[in-house]
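Lab meeting, item 3. Inverse folding demo.
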């Protein structure tokens, strides 16, 4: 199973992100826009996990004790080398703490966390090996766009299925926040 731990977006944020991303699309671009049903805030990507590791992982994630997390999407950005356009997430102390608790829980299952700093975001589009398409998009984007804030009351364990038309995600487990 290919798994990750994430926070789902609320409908008001999805609607605002859909409206925003639709306003940026053109017919002559070489970008692949992500589908709203794949939008989430990753807490930790876990990768390929066996069934027995998954059982232990679910048990450890149920032990995570964290308050509900205020979420505020703010601004946009680009990961140029990866060819990604995203909506940014403000890292509140509660979000940072939840991410650390999840990494600690998953490390007890033998999962090694990524070495790079945590940079939460919602991926909106990917360039198809075309740096020019990303530059054109940058010229159209306002970086200071605001989205409705919300409070995360749970985090989720997702299974990801990759296909020719993009990724599809299914919720495997839900974990309430206090």
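The presenter then showed the designed sequence:
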């Amino acid at each position: 199973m290919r798994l990750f731990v994430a926070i789902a977006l609320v409908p008001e944020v999805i609607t605002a992100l859909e409206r925003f991303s639709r306003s940026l699309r053109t017919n002559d671009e070489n970008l692949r826009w992500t589908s709203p049903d794949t939008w989430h805030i990753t807490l930790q990507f876990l990768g390929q996990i066996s069934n027995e590791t998954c059982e232990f992982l679910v048990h450890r994630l149920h032990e995570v004790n964290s308050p509900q997390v205020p979420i505020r999407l703010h601004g946009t950005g680009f990961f140029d080398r990866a060819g990604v356009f995203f909506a940014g997430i403000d890292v509140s102390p509660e979000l940072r703490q939840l991410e650390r608790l999840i990494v600690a829980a998953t490390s007890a299952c033998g999962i090694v966390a990524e070495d790079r700093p945590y940079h939460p975001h919602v991926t909106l589009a990917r360039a198809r090996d075309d740096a020019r398409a990303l530059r054109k998009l940058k010229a159209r984007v306002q970086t200071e766009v605001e989205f409705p804030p919300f409070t995360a009351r749970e985090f989720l364990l997702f299974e990801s299925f990759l296909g020719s038309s993009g990724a599809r995600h299914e919720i495997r487990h839900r974990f309430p926040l206090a």
